[in-house]
Amino acid sequence: MDNNVFRKTRSGADPDFFAAEAAGLSWLAEAGAPVVDVIAVWDCGIELQRLHSDLPDADAAREFGAALARMHDAGAESFGAPPAGYHGRQFIGERPLSSRTHASWGAFYAAERVEPYLESARRAGYLTADDEELTRSACAVIADGVFDDDEPPSRLHGDLWSGNVMWTPDGVVMIDPAAHGGHRETDLAMLVLFGCPHLDAIVSAYDQTRPLAAGWRDRIPLHQLHPLAVHAAGHGPSYGSALGRAAQATLALTR
Fold first, then answer.
1. Environment class of 214 (CB within 10 Å of its CB; exposed 0-12, middle 13-18, buried 19+)
2. Model pTM?
């Protein structure tokens, strides 16, 4: 057994499941992002560079923040675009992730990143009728373009919670992307949602490399609607309640 290789396998996996992961990692790597190296991929598995853990470090956090800004600036063809050259299905965790593209961010975000998970969350009993109504109302406002700006599509990791941010002796390395074209604030909002060591250092270095738009912290609930909707579909009612609160905070931004 090669100690430098980490192998993931899944019997009966969708034939695109590991291909999507490999394509996302390669696409982010093309932008100079610190991601795990792909060694091999096949229908039911993937081999990756084995990572060795280290304690979180403020210097590594600052390097990561700057690299994340540059990765986002590498851009994407459109909102919702999958990794360039990849034409298969995509996933976030084990759930499907739409690859339908839109010219505007709001239309994309509402239709492809929030609404697709609401019915599953309701069926599972994890989203109340009131919280679903709030979320759909927020989606209608978002789709109308209230939050659209002049930002071009960014190259997102797409599932940037702390578990996918690995601290190694060589610095931060990202794993398990759901890579697509979106808004840069969505990756940052996911880091905030699930917490990340030295988050202030990451954000500070990001902002120094590529200044964030005024009011971005106020828009964090807006950009957390996607990960909360995904989690509400399968991880319990606490996420459904959090989704409703984020939708309410999003609607409050328009008043």
1. exposed
2. 0.95
The DSSP string of 109-169 is IIIIIIGGGHHHHHHHT-S-HHHHHHHHHHHHHHHTTTT--SPPPEEE-S---GGGEEEET
CB count in 10 Å sphere of residue 235? 15
174-193 average pLDDT score: 97
Name which of 163, 164, 181, 161 is nearest 113 in CA terms.
181
- Structural domains in the chain plus CATH codes: 52-253 (3.90.1200.10)
**CB contact at 8 A, 135 and 250:** no
Element at 208 (helix H, strand E): helix 199-209
Please identify every residue annotated as catalytic: 159
d(CA 25, CA 34): 9
- Which of 78, 62, 74 lies closest to 153 in space, CA to CA? 78
User: What tokens does 120 get?
Assistant: 């599953």
With tokens 């971005």, the residue in question is: 216
The 10s digit of each residue's pLDDT in 72-105 is: 999 999 999 999 999 999 999 999 999 999 999 9
Q: Which two tokens stand for residue 35?
A: 């991601």
Nearest in space to 106 (alpha carbons), one of 135, 136, 79: 79
Extract the tokens encoding 162.
Answer: 């702390």
